[in-house]
Amino acid sequence: MSLTASWLAGRLTEEGHQVALLSGELTVEQRADVIQRFRTGKEKVLVTTNVCSRGIDVEQVTLVVNFDLPVDMEGNADNETYLHRIGRTGRFGRRGFAVNMVDSERSMELIRQIERHFNRSISRLDPGSLQEMELLIS
């Protein structure tokens, strides 16, 4: 299991959130149980590894947060995985948002690679401005 995913799920749980953790180490039955608990609202936050980037449709997902941006074997942005990850939100005619955590020049370079690949600009949000974030979701 990804150490980052485990750590993040633990931190969110410590903060009082109802968190489900989905990773490739789980059996098919365990994964189905985790997804079902998330779908029914028993857990409100789903922390996943790349196992969830494809093939899982949960209608109520409105926000995807890329804590770590996906990279390929050469260390470049994995554009296809990125697209599948952010495609988990805003489905079924609903509005959705994707937020990328950028904490270094390396992760900023990955963002630039993704922007070039898709010929799209990714807006920068000020993490200290709740007003800016509220405007996006209203």
Automatic annotation (TrEMBL):
SMART domains: HELICc (SM00490). Residues 1-136 form the Helicase C-terminal domain. It comes from the Eukaryota. CDD domains: SF2_C_DEAD. Gene3D superfamilies: P-loop containing nucleotide triphosphate hydrolases (3.40.50.300). This is Helicase C-terminal domain-containing protein. It comes from Pogonophryne albipinna.
